[in-house]
Amino acid sequence: MKLHTREWGSGDRVALLVHGIMSDHRTWRRVGPALAARGYRVIGVDLRGHGESGRGGYSAEGFADDLVETLPTGAELAVGHSLGGMALALAVERLAPRRAVYSDPAWALGSTPVDPALFMEFRGASRQMIANLNPRWEEADIDVELATLAAWDPRTALAVAGEHAVDRTPERAVVPSLVQAADPSFLVSDALKEELVRRGFEVRTVAGAGHTVHRDDFDGFMKSLEGWL
Predict the structure, then answer these.
(1) How many Å apart are CA 39 and CA 30, to the nearest integer?
(2) Cα angle for residues 86, 93, 28 (degrees, 5° grid)
(3) pTM beyond 0.85
C-alpha cells in the first residue's frame, strides 16, 4: 500500500521518519523541521491504519512492505519509533538507509505481552488523561495526540499485540544502527541492551525520558543523535 506522507525541507540528504502505534506523521512536528534545518529532505509516513493512509490487512510484515513501497531506498537516515521501529527493522535491508535509529522499538512484545484491548480503550482517552500520563509534553503534543487517536484504526493493535506478539528483535544490525531507549523502558530492558550491543547495535539511553522520547524530552532526543545525523 502506498502510504500518505508529509515532507519537511528540501536538502540533498534524505531522512525517513516512521511513527509508533496510535500516532501518525504529526508526532514528528519538532523533529521534522529540526532535521530539515540540518540539510535534510525529511519524509514522514502515516502507517497503514493511521492518519490519512488506507485501512485493513494489518500485519507486522505488511507495515514493513508498505514502507518499501512508499519510501526511497538509500536514504541517509531512517528513524522508527516503537511500532515504527518494528516496521523499519523488517524493511531496513530493502530500504538500505546509510544509518538507522530505532527509538524505544517495539521488538520484544513477545516477552512483554500487552492486551490489544488496552490500546483500543486508550483511543477514547481524554485530554486530562493524556496530560497526566505525559506531564512533560507541551500542549501542542497533547493536541496532536488527540488528533492522531481520532484518525487511528485500533484494529492495527491486533496485528502486533496479544496472540500476534512475537519477539522480532533483529539478529544483527543490517546497517549502522542506534537503539535509543527510554528511561526506564518497558520495551528495551537492560538485558536486551546488552544483547543488542553483542548484535552490533549502539545503544543510548535518554535519561528520564518516557516511551515517546522525542515528545517527552526533545532536547535529549536530539542530543542522543549526535554523530548519527
Answers:
(1) 15
(2) 45
(3) yes
